[in-house]
Write a structure and sequence with these properties.
single chain; 371 residues; alpha/beta; six-stranded mixed sheet; four-stranded mixed sheet; 12 strands; 27% strand; elongated
């Protein structure tokens, strides 16, 4: 064989071998990078909730492109590769949550908000890769018009693996999701009798503030009628003989007792001494009765407010709104009645009309159990 040809043939063989080796190495490397999606197994959890069922699922993850960023086995220098759940992260996690627990729609509806769910791997000590799974899930009570946050779960796991061997993430992912739902179940069982949003009903309890220390304010009390000494402001330069400044307010606080939200409301019907006045020579019994009836009218509208609120079905999610609504309506009713009273009695000048109002007010006070 020609020597030149032999050298040429040998060189070609070496070049062909190197080319085949590079192709094989590239295919092997590519196979380690292109990892298969993680198949999340559906699993029925070991407990059955007594207080809630899962009504909705919302994916709030900032990065929903994948659930994991993994270093390919065999190297620590390669860039972590995104790996998602089979069928997509949102769909797979939502299916797991719905299939893991029975859905008894007679219980409280809860919406799950997935805020974070990801695994990240980073190089560790020689020959080791460190991984961490982070899960954050918020649980909201579904309301008629909006949802109300109950509790947030934060959990996950850490692991180490050899650089040459992949780590099976699926059991840990499944366990973390199950732990989140178990945490919700335990939290509900613990707080069902004491948390305002979990109350089964709202009960309003009224008390009246009637203390009357010698200060600027007189609080309404049947056994403490007005006296002219309560009118301490300087008289105004107008045609009226006297003027009273009555109004009302209330304070409230709530507590949950055996699953019932008790809302304690303390009402205050009052007049301000330093905003009420009488002209010199007008401080007679007839005029004082007229001003006392203004005070009585405020008491009447507040008692009506109590009756309306007690007759209204309230829920833990709307009782604040209803209180605000009835407060505004009561204030409007007070102003309307006061204006009507002064207009019909001509500020007390029309004695016949005044007597008519006196009788109506007395009847209302008796009907409302004030007297």
């Amino acid at each position: 064989m020609n020597k030149t040809f032999l050298i040429y043939f040998t060189a070609v063989k070496r070049l062909l071998f190197l080319l085949l080796f590079q192709i094989a190495f590239y295919s092997s490397s590519a196979g380690s990078i292109l990892q298969d999606p993680i198949v999340l197994r559906m699993e029925r959890l070991s407990f059955t909730p007594d207080e809630f069922y899962i009504e909705g699922f919302v994916d709030e993850r900032k990065n929903s492109a994948a659930v994991a960023w993994l270093i390919p086995p065999g190297t620590v220098s390669a860039k972590p590769q995104p790996v998602d759940l089979a069928g997509g992260g949102k769909a797979a996690i939502e299916s797991f949550i719905y299939s893991s627990l029975p859905r008894n729609r007679d219980l409280r509806p809860v919406v799950v908000r997935l805020q974070e769910f990801n695994v990240r791997e980073v190089p560790g000590e020689t020959g080791i890769v460190n991984g961490e799974l982070v899960l954050q899930m918020a649980f909201d009570l579904k309301g008629k018009s909006e949802n109300y946050h109950l509790v947030t779960f934060k959990g996950g796991m850490r692991y180490k693996r050899s650089v040459h061997q992949a780590f099976d993430l699926e059991p840990g992912m499944r366990k973390s999701l199950g732990n989140a739902l178990a945490y919700l179940n335990q939290w509900m069982d613990k707080n069902v009798s004491s948390h305002p949003l979990l109350a089964t009903e709202v009960k309003v309890v009224f008390t009246d503030y009637i203390s009357n220390p010698d200060e600027d304010t007189v609080y309404y009390a049947v056994d403490r009628p007005l006296v002219w000494d309560d009118f301490r402001a300087a008289p105004r330069p107008n045609q009226y003989a006297a003027s009273i400044f009555p109004s009302f307010s209330w304070t409230g606080k709530s507590e949950v007792v055996d699953g019932v939200l008790q809302y304690h409301i303390e009402t205050r019907v009052y007049m301000l001494k330093n905003s009420s006045w009488v002209k010199k020579g007008a401080a007679n019994d007839y005029g004082l009765n007229h001003e006392q009836r203004h005070f009585d009218i405020v008491k009447i509208v507040v008692e009506r407010f109590k009756q309306k609120l007690l007759a209204t079905p309230l829920s833990p999610e709307d009782y604040d709104d209803m209180l605000g609504y009835y407060y505004v309506e009561t204030y409007r009713e007070m102003n309307k009645l006061q204006d009507q009273y002064d207009a019909e009695t001509n500020h007390g000048i029309d004695t016949a009309a005044q007597e008519k109002w006196n009788k109506w007010i007395e009847v209302e006070l008796e009907r409302l159990n004030v007297k």
